[in-house]
UniProtKB/TrEMBL annotation:
PANTHER family: PHOSPHOGLYCOLATE PHOSPHATASE. The keyword Hydrolase applies. Keywords: Hydrolase. SUPFAM superfamilies: HAD-like. One of its GO terms (molecular function) is phosphoglycolate phosphatase activity. It comes from Streptomyces botrytidirepellens. Gene3D superfamilies: HAD superfamily/HAD-like (3.40.50.1000), Putative phosphatase, domain 2 (1.10.150.240). The keyword Nucleus does not apply. This is HAD family hydrolase. GO terms for biological process: DNA repair.
């Protein structure tokens, strides 16, 4: 899938289990703090997070904890999650790791005619905080990404990122020039539903076979293979 060198390629990175792994129960701690602040109660059940957006996770989590009209709490809960992420940045730094090949893959993209940003289920400030905690994120234009408060469907996040990037950079970023890199079938389906190239990275819970079955255009076992395997497809 070669690209026209006159046009940049939009590279959209997932964050968790694609670029970084934040361990030590930080994800649950974020929700425990936010839930306590917004409701005054202790968090019980927590929705599955893999490949899902913050909006979808929040709605299911609130319902699991007996809140039948979660929409009314969106604004307060988003603010509480963001505050919790800032409070836990030191903990993220202690337990977070940059996944193999991530720095090199991002540097390889930066050396070429690309715009790099994020398409992630995280809220924008949480994505920025996670990446900053492990010294990653320089070179990403977070203003044109797609984030967990843009919708429950990951395809909507990709569409929103493309729209923002097109408005800022003056390029269409069509299907040949939009690439989504993520570790779950949700990332793959979201990319394809938004007419983008899907690169699956088997560094999370989903295996390479599961990513292939979801229809990933390229499947890698880690980002150490990114430049070599993706270069031909991207016309590098």
């Amino acid at each position: 899938m070669p690209t026209d060198r006159a046009e940049p390629t939009l590279i959209l990175w997932d964050v968790d289990h694609t670029l970084v792994s934040i361990r030590g129960g930080v994800s649950r701690s974020l929700y425990e703090r936010a839930f306590k602040k917004v409701t005054g109660r202790t968090l019980g059940g927590l929705a599955d997070m893999a490949g899902r957006t913050e909006q979808a996770i929040m709605v299911e989590t609130l319902r699991l904890n007996g809140i039948d009209e979660p929409d009314a709490l969106f604004s307060d809960f988003y603010a509480a999650l963001t505050a919790a992420a800032i409070e836990l940045k030191g903990r993220m730094r202690e337990v977070g790791v940059v996944l193999p090949g991530a720095r090199e893959a991002m540097a390889s993209c930066a050396a070429r005619h690309t715009v790099q940003s994020a398409v992630t289920g995280n809220l924008r400030p949480i994505a920025i905080t996670k990446l900053a905690a492990v010294g990653l994120g320089d070179g990403l234009d977070f203003s044109v990404g797609g984030y967990g408060d843009d919708g429950s469907d990951r395809a909507d996040l990709v569409r929103q990122a493309r729209k923002r990037a097109s408005e800022k950079y003056g390029h269409a970023f069509d299907s040949r020039r939009t690439v989504v890199i993520g570790d779950t079938p949700h990332d793959v389906r979201g990319a394809h539903d938004a007419d983008a190239l899907a690169v699956g990275i088997a560094t999370g819970r989903s295996s390479a076979d599961e990513l292939r079955a979801a229809g990933a255009d390229i499947v890698l076992t880690s980002l150490t293979d990114f430049t070599g395997r993706c270069g031909e497809a991207l016309g590098w």
